[in-house]
Design goal:
Blueprint (H helix, E strand, L loop, with lengths): L2 H21 L5 H16 L8 E2 L9 E9 L2 E9 L1 H7 L8 H23 L7 E2 L3 E4 L12 E5 L5 E9 L24
Antiparallel strand pairs: 1-6, 2-3, 2-4, 2-5, 3-7, 6-7
Helix pairs in contact: 2-4
Length: 193
Amino acid sequence: VNPAAIVSDGQKTVTESKQFLRSLVANGLDRLFKFSADSIFPVFFPDLKFNFSDSDESENNYSHLIICSIVAKSFVGQLFINVNLNLLKQSSKELSAQPDDVILKILNETSNQLLGIIAFNLNKLNLYGRVGLPLDIQRSTYSPGKLFVPSIKIHDASRAFMLKFGFLDTEGNQRLDFTKIKCEMPQDDVDFL
């Protein structure tokens, strides 16, 4: 047996699995996710410019992780915000002197609001999402493993942030289609879990 062939086949299998899972993402969910991120991040980080794009970035390049969830009927979503605090502080004059815990509190609220925008738009499909409370974790003390569900991964231009959002139906219903909804910001509060 050729060991190089085994490694090559293993890498091929992982790549194929990632491609397969990405193909299962609901139509238009990537557009809604990018809209939500591009809409909310400038509110909390006004001195930075955002235009999130698809990413294949490794989670290993980030110092902290914020996790937040959303539930909508039989659908469950999980948001991961990976942040490189040193890079973020270098990119933002407003944040450069802030302690890490203050920035993490801002990111916790950012994650909640981002999912709030997604929940607002899920309401148009009669799903009425509820957003959970965020949890921030220092990456050196915890590895959450991999998210093996249909998911979208995006990063900002500076790569201070890498976001991942997985959304699946726990009852195996037909895949949702977000292409027909107009992505909008809510004008009022969103319900939380």
